[in-house]
Design brief:
The structure is a single chain. This protein is of the alpha+beta class. It has three domains: 62 residues, no CATH class; 95 residues, Tyrosine recombinase, N-terminal domain (DNA polymerase, domain 1), CATH 1.10.150.130; 189 residues, hpI Integrase, Chain A, CATH 1.10.443. 49% of the residues lie in helices and 12% in strands. It has 13 helices and nine strands. The longest helix has 30 residues. The relative contact order is 0.07.
Length: 388
């Protein structure tokens, strides 16, 4: 048996086992802090392989960077991470999204691997399979990576692994989908098509305020300033899925920030009509009326509207005017494009839409401003010719 140099935290030695494998034995301080040591082993096909492993380990023990191999599986850690580190630091629907991505994708493929055995290659193959075999979008794969990366970063902080293998993975390049705002002629057809529709007012406000569907459904009367034509956007309707069915609540906006949107007088006129309509419903419903959240848009009993119902109704209207592929979110894009083409600067559009930065707004709607720049150049050319 070949003896190795004694280290500060114990001894290391190498021996040939009866099964033909070489074993390197080392010791680390016990976690109880009682001054005792725990023996650990590494294995290899040759004495030199084990010597290299043992030298590396004993060096890490001496420097204080050693992390003992953990038998905890990734699936177990994900449950611990969600329960102890994530649950009280994110919104409920964010937690549910993380849980879903863990259960549906991460656990099912690499969940049985121990934390210390997961390699960069394991994760890279996992991501590639999600794209090629499961047919997931690049955005979904990046979302899955975001969850796994955060979980493994926390494992590093907790001392369960030395480094996060997901750091060195290559992610697929995202391609932003082309936005499809409604043209002016299509907007006119849409306005005509929704006249008398049960959701006419909510469609109109969405189109000419640029609100997200979840935001317009959460708009409350205390956030409508009729005197100054202002809307305060400070919450959204949150849908949570449970085994008993979906539940609804009012939560912070997407970026957790409030914003004021100055709207056109025509929008305020529609909101006044909505107020009158609710008063009629309240009188008819009598004691059955219950608008506990003071919402602007409700059904005839004062209850909140559901996103799925609004979306389906919108799709029927869009299809009826020859726009079956138009999405509800395209109303928001239409508002942004109309704002820019009307002369609003990017910073104003960013503020009204609630984007985090003006650069993001410019990235999404940059083609519109470029069209305006080209038109500006054409106008200047006409001017030059007139004065020359």
């Amino acid at each position: 048996m070949a003896r190795m140099k004694r280290t500060a935290n114990g001894s290391g030695c190498i021996r040939l086992r009866k099964d033909g494998r070489w074993e390197g034995i080392y010791s680390i301080p016990a976690t109880d802090g009682a001054g005792k040591y725990v023996r650990k082993s590494v294995y290899g096909k040759t004495q030199e392989d084990v010597r290299k492993k043992l030298t590396k380990i004993t060096s890490e023990i001496d420097s204080g960077s050693y992390v003992a191999p953990s038998k905890m599986k990734l699936s177990e850690w994900l449950d611990t991470w969600l329960r102890d580190y994530v649950k009280f630091s994110v919104k409920n629907y964010t937690l549910e999204t993380y849980q879903s991505l863990c259960d549906k994708h991460i656990k099912r493929v690499i969940g049985n691997k121990t934390l210390t055995s997961i390699t960069v290659s394991d994760i890279q193959r996992f991501y590639n399979a999600l794209l090629t075999e499961n047919g997931l979008s690049t955005k979904t794969v990046k979302n899955i990576h975001g969850v796994l990366h955060r979980a493994l970063e926390q494992a590093v902080t907790a001392g369960l692994i030395k480094e996060n293998p997901s750091r060195r993975c290559s992610l697929p390049k995202s391609e932003r989908k082309a936005i499809k705002p409604l043209e002016s002629e299509e907007i006119s057809r849409f306005i005509e098509a929704i006249k008398g529709h049960k959701y006419e007012n909510i469609f109109f406000v969405t189109l000419f305020c640029g609100l997200r569907e979840s935001e317009v459904l959460a708009l409350t009367w205390d956030c409508v300033d009729f005197e100054n034509n202002l809307l305060l956007i400070n919450k959204q309707l949150v849908t949570s899925t449970h085994h008993t069915g979906p539940t609804y609540s009012l939560g912070p906006t997407k970026n957790s920030k409030s914003r004021y949107v100055t709207v056109a007088p025509s929008v305020m006129t529609v909101l006044k009509k909505q107020k009158d309509l609710q008063n009629e419903w309240s009188e008819k419903a009598s004691g059955a009326w219950d608008n506990a959240w003071n919402l602007v848009f409700t059904n005839e009993l004062g209850e909140h509207l559901k996103q799925n119902a609004i979306y389906k109704a919108f799709k029927k209207v869009a299809a009826s005017i020859g726009l079956p592929s138009t999405r509800y979110h395209d109303l928001r894009h239409s508002y942004a494009v109309a704002s820019i083409e009307s002369g609003d600067d990017i910073k104003t559009v960013q503020s009204n839409l609630g984007h985090a930065t003006a650069s993001f707004t410019l990235d999404v709607y940059g083609h519109v401003s470029r069209k305006m720049q080209m038109k500006s150049a054409e106008n200047m050319e006409k001017y030059i010719k007139n004065v020359s």
